[in-house]
Amino acid sequence: MNTVFRSLLLLVCFSGIAKIFAVDHWAFQPLKRPAGDSVDHFIEFGLNSVKLNPSEPAEPHRLLRRLHLDLIGLPPTPKESAAFAKSPSDDHLACIVDELLSRPQYGERWGRHWLDLARYADSNGLHEDSDRPHAWRYRDYVIDSFNADKPYGRFIREQLAGDEIDPGNPDAWIATGFCRNGPSNEENVAKNEVESYRLDQLDDILSTATQVFLGQTIGCARCHDHKTEPFKQTDYYRLLAVFENTVPAYVPFKEQQLGKPELRPVKARAKHKLLKDPHIRALTEAGGNVLTTRVLLRGNPAMPGEVVEPNVPEVLRRLGQTFSVAATGKSTGRRAALADWIAAPDNPLTWRVMANHLWQHHFGRGLVGTPGNFGVSGERSTHPELLDWLACQLRDNGGHLKPLHKLIVMSRAYRQSSANREDAAMVDPGNRSLWRYPPHRLEAEVIRDGILAASGNLNVTMGGPGIKPRVPPEILEQSIRNKWPRVEKESSALWRRSVYVYLKRQLPMPMLDLFDSPDTSRSCAARFTSTTPTQALALLNDEFVNEQARYLAKRILAEQPNDSVRALMERVWALPLSDMQVAEATAFVAERLAARTTEPDARKLALADLAVVMFNSSQFVYVD
Cα–Cα–Cα angle for 498, 109, 609, nearest 5°? Predict the structure, then answer.
């Protein structure tokens, strides 16, 4: 038996066995609260099982920086760091956590995580990559929802069926933009491709929704039974039937008053008028007769098979999970039924998946290392009882995220040092038992925002259309359609937080792209983190970085001319400094000053050189 055939046979056997026992898969089981009263109860139990102790608490400056970057995506000021260092009590820390969670910057930070999942962008992608002039309303809806601590169940229901559950509320219509965020090419569809294109768009909605809310890869069953998961092709089309009667809609509104939705079914080479007035990109029902859904053999529209009705996958029905559809006069009610089932307190997948997302963004890795795949082929949780306890906490507090944030960041596990320990690394080199806080690289947006915060130029204006900062001229040539403007000199209007940068699919902003901003063509549950020479070169040579370094140097010289080196370092790193670090930096500035003696503003430029080096340091681009 040759090797290839043996491998295929083993794969088929494994797949078959996995499907037989999938009803017992841990993620499908009912959610029951484990015995325990805190995060640390479960973490310390795991540590004891491998005979390890947790690390010492992190020093106050480092802990405060960690908290600020996690909760609002911006470093603390030197004044904030000094105040906490004087009184690093648990009560003081709890007050700081509450205050950070109440800041509007919290929604900007955690809304960005959700936009990764929702594959948000401001342009259509594909061939035309045309502008979506009001897509930003969905982005602002997400940020506002996080700031308001909207119950997660409500958040789900609005994004899948806002037009059905609350038709008079503009925010509910905006929320359905979740279903419209994927790439589209509605004005360039050939006559013989209309049905295939429509099905591709519905597949994008179905695949994204089931992965984001349930952590399942059901989209892989479009053309055949899933190869590794217990989902049949009929399961895929039962879920597709939920969205079969939907159509893209543009809803005019003024002063929060909704107009009549303009429906835009897919048509060959359809040319629609450009809507200049405010409107909402939404998804709604097409009206009229409900389309019949058939299983498509091999996913081919020309090969229709059996008729199916909306329902949940068979493996979940066997565990008592189902939903029933109640049509209304204007709607099939199918999306509302699906959304109610997903958001139900007894749906174990929903609450486990979201609890894991929160843990992931606080620790750099989820308890389940495959946050978009809670299926048979995904990873098991490193701390299954902790995951269930967190999921129960989230579910039982009404789906509010902020209390769960506080539970996590107030834990001893979160507050411990990130320093390496050789004894523990020998036993658990991957830190799966969390014997230390895991250091991890900051996201692209936080790096850019941190540079602006350090320079004092961060524009805190919230909401509205995306900004288009300066892009190198040689890259602008790649922007053939929906062109990026040429910016000779940036101003404060372009120094807003990176969550507001216009996301053009065919031309991602180079600095953000270089530091692994997500591919917006699909849902991103966990960003890839790369380490490349070009990242260091960009932080050393990028015009934006050097410009902000000069602004920082000018500000420091005006505020603290007698101790400018130390003051600049504290502003950038938000960490305590050793005498050796200050001495090395002082020597560097003296060397740069000697090299620039003939230049005007030599002192400022020498300090700016130091700032550039510090922006390029591990202490700046990592959280630990």
Answer: 50
Residues 217/128, Cβ–Cβ less than 8 Å: no
Q: How many CA atoms lie within 13 A of 18 on its CB side?
A: 16
Within 148-193, residue ranges assigned H as helices are 152-165, 170-175
* Structure-token pair, residue 92: 């003081």
CA separation for the pair 550, 571 (Å, rounded) = 14
Say whether 284 sits in a helix, a strand or coil: strand
Element (H, E) at 254: strand 246-254
Q: How far is CA 371 from the centre of its chain?
A: 11
* Domain ranges within the chain, ordered by starting residue: 7-49+58-102+347-440, 151-343, 539-623
C-alpha distance from residue 323 to each of 46, 77, 484, 510 (Å)? 38, 51, 46, 45
Kindly list the distances between the CA atom of residue 616 and the CA atoms of 508, 536, 539, in Å, as whole numbers in the listed order: 22, 6, 6
Say what the pTM is: 0.95
Cβ 549 vs Cβ 608: under 8 Å? yes
User: Looking up tokens 């506080």, which residue turns up?
Assistant: 406
Token pair belonging to 624:
């630990």
- The rounded distance, in Å, linking the Cα atoms of 468 and 127 is 21
**Size (the chain), residues:** 624
CB 257 within 8 A of CB 173: no
* Least trusted range by pLDDT, from 150-164, 226-240, 250-264, 402-416: 250-264
**For residue 43, is pLDDT > 60?**
yes
Distance, in Å, from the CA atom of 372 to the CA atom of 353, rounded to the nearest integer, reads 8
Q: Which residues lie below 8 Å from residue 455, measured CB to CB, with a gap of 6+?
A: 548, 549, 551, 552, 555
Tell me how far apart the alpha carbons of residues 61 and 47 are, in angstroms, rounded to a whole number.
26
Distance CA 238, CA 308 (A): 6
Tokens standing for residue 159: 């994004």
